[in-house]
Fold:
Amino acid sequence: MTTDEYLATIDALVVQPFPEVTYVDACGGGGPEHHVRELQVSRDFWDDDDGQAWVEAEADLQACLDDLAARLTTRWGNAFVVDLGPYLSAGCEGVPVSEPLDYLSQQAVSMQVWPLPDSGRWLALAVGQADKELPLILFAAVGQASALDLNTSGRS
Structure:
């Protein structure tokens, strides 16, 4: 897909109503307060003995994320970075974690977040991987402002 196609997917995602029940489909999932889409998925790395394929795939996905981030920053201003480590730790300790933070924290280390003006939502981009042999994924996610404790200005 092209950057414009990714942006069209993001544009649809940010205005789409949240589903009443949690679901998973071929390109992501969602639930009562979130959407997650896999924008780009690399190959797997079962046979990547020297790690070169992973390095190349990570560079490609990061370049795509950077391009999208530049375009989204033009629209909504600078993103802020959310460290997903505390959400992962909380979930592992049995503390309930809001979606999509619980899911993303199991895939990625951090995410870039743009508060969406006048919507009570935020959009995030992240590159993650569930396990070292599995594909790298560029995620777009939309969540409720309350999941990140954003105030009305969109900042925590």
